[in-house]
DNA sequence: GGGAGCATGTAACGGGTTACATGATTGG
DNA sequence: CCAATCATGTAACCCGTTACATGCTCCC
């Protein structure tokens, strides 16, 4: 048995692993398929890839030897290219899954940024933005449920299903937090309505040295 | 009154607005201060900026005219530079807050990616990763609470406080979802333990045409 | 004296998005 | 026949990260 020492994994980015992951369920898929599949699973918690990224990731994976491809569409110019994971790819997946340090979850919440800067905005508009976000979360929740139903009872999809259930809960929580904040917002509006007449700008000024004296 | 038509806002990225937002509370701050402040507020829901980014953002803001700076440290070579928002900056902030389309929240959840690919990994390791994530969420929750306490009772910080409370709830929910998934994981392990002996690889193979027949 | 924190930057890299371009197939 | 969908790609751009570099000041 030659070369049994644990060779270094090529340091791929998580998105590359996610792409390989899509192939690791055993299907032979086109870039187009991949994108669609990502759109009803990975999208909820990780990634909504663009086509261009998918295609370049796939080419990269093939170059490394983690995937192979073949062109099907008869003898045409622009043939459909189907990708399949290789044994080397499967092994690399396993090693990555078990050995690679887990990247922390990243959240970039544009809506909360707006709320955080609430003093600069019109209260009514703030409220509107929140309501929209609430509705969006609810929509995502429903979609996640639908996709989870599609995945249920498929024996190979136990883990994706588990994550889809997590996602459902995630959007449910997101919705509920938006509702809670809506209530906070109204409470704040009432309080500020009582204590000031109309001053729109700079209610924040002065608050000087708390920054400096705040314990890290 | 010259030039009253609504001039176009320079299309800054959200992170630039976030930087300007940090200044919009009225303080005169150094890049270093800015970073620290971001670290105990924006970090929870949006952004943990690097110094290099902070400094380049600040230079950009000054160039546009949304901030001014002055060097304090006597006549030294490497003086400390303090930035302050300008009236133009304040007005731009307000317009952005009220008029700019809100970027959707982005989530990139490395832990869930691992779980989604659970079939490729060792169950015990999977569990470990989840537990770690759970603990991290709890840590963040506690930090958010602490920072919220620091911000409470400051009249100008009502909105940041509101978001900090949202963040507290966020990490609480994150923790609880991790716990729930831990339970799911154990249930799944028991079920799979009953139905198969030891096959590690490819329990997922075959699951063939469901993909193609799945309704988008 | 030395380490921790203060303070500011430059340069390289690359990942990911957007815009653009092309054309086939399918169904109403 | 025309629109939608299938299907694949290139090129430019730039945001953000990482690594590197420098030197101060305060405090033990």
What does this structure look like?
2 copies of one chain form a homodimer. With 216 residues, the first copy, chain A, is mainly α. Chain A has 2 domains: 86 residues, Winged helix-like DNA-binding domain superfamily/Winged helix DNA-binding domain (Arc Repressor Mutant, subunit A, Orthogonal Bundle), CATH 1.10.10; 86 residues. Helix content of chain A is 57%, strand content 7%. The longest helix of chain A has 38 residues. Chain A is elongated, with a radius of gyration of 24 Å. The first copy, chain A, starts with 13 loop residues before the first helix and ends with a helix. Chains A and B meet through helix 1, helix 2, helix 4, strand 4 and helix 5 of A and helix 1, helix 2, helix 4, strand 4 and helix 5 of B. Chain A binds a DNA duplex (28 and 28 nucleotides) through helix 3.
Count of individual domains of chain A:
2
Beta fraction of chain A: 5-15%
The DSSP helix count of chain A reads: 8
Largest interface, Cβ cutoff 8 Å? A-B, 88 and 88 residues
Q: Low-confidence runs of chain A (pLDDT<50, min 5 residues)?
A: 1-5, 198-216
Mean pLDDT of chain A: 85
CATH-derived topology of the largest domain in chain A: Arc Repressor Mutant, subunit A
Looking across the biggest beta sheet of chain A, what order are the strands in? 1-3-2
**What is the gyration radius of chain A calculated from CA atoms?**
24 Å
Q: What is the name of the CATH architecture of the largest domain in chain A?
A: Orthogonal Bundle
CATH class of the largest domain in chain A: Mainly Alpha
Q: Which quaternary structure do these chains form?
A: homodimer
Q: How many angstroms does the end-to-end distance of chain A come to?
A: 55 Å
Number of strands of chain A: 4
For the largest beta-sheet of chain A, the strand count, sense and barrel status come to: 3 strands, antiparallel
The helix/strand class of chain A is mainly alpha
Q: Helical proportion of chain A?
A: 55-70%
List SSEs of chain A in N-to-C order: HEHHEEHEHHHH
CATH superfamily of the largest domain in chain A: Winged helix-like DNA-binding domain superfamily/Winged helix DNA-binding domain
Task: Using the alpha-carbon principal axes, give the shape of chain A.
Answer: elongated
């Amino acid at each position: 048995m030659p070369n049994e020492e644990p060779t270094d994994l090529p340091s791929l980015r998580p998105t590359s692993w996610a792409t390989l992951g899509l192939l690791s369920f055993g299907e032979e898929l086109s870039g187009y398929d991949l994108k669609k599949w990502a759109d009803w699973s990975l999208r909820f918690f990780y990634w909504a890839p663009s086509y261009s990224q998918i295609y370049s990731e796939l080419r990269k994976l093939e170059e490394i030897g983690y995937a192979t491809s073949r062109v099907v569409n008869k003898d045409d110019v622009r043939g459909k290219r189907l990708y399949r994971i290789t044994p080397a790819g499967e092994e690399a997946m396993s090693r990555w899954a078990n050995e690679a340090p887990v990247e922390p979850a990243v959240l970039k919440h544009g809506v909360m940024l707006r709320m955080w800067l609430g003093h600069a905005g019109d209260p009514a508009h703030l409220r509107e933005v929140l309501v929209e976000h609430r509705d969006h979360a609810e929509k995502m929740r429903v979609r996640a449920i639908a996709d989870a139903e599609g995945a249920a009872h498929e024996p190979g999809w136990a883990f994706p299903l588990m994550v889809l259930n997590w996602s459902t809960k995630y959007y449910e929580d997101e919705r509920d937090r938006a509702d809670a904040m809506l209530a906070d917002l109204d409470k704040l509006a009432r309080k500020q309505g009582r204590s000031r007449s109309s001053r729109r700008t700079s209610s924040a000024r002065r608050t000087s040295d708390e920054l400096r004296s705040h314990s890290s």
